[in-house]
Design a protein that fits this description.
79 residues; alpha+beta; two-stranded antiparallel ribbon; binds zinc ion
Length: 79
Amino acid sequence: MIDIVGIIKTMCAMVLLGLIAYTQGRRISARIRKKTMRCATCGRTVFERPVKKEIDGKELVFCCEHCAMNYSLVHNKKT
Ligand SMILES: [Zn+2]
């Protein structure tokens, strides 16, 4: 006789594992997207055409040229 309960248990475990992997993967990818698409000056989310500037060896992302200029001005004043 076939162990139906065993098969159901295995299937449930597999579905649950798949669901966990799916949600974890989505959460991680969303976090990465958020991190890379934030303006360093105003904190606004950059949706497209991010302005990238290398300041003191660090690559920073800005929403526009104005923010990039502002950041370098403030940075130069402080140091
Ligand atoms: Zn900005």
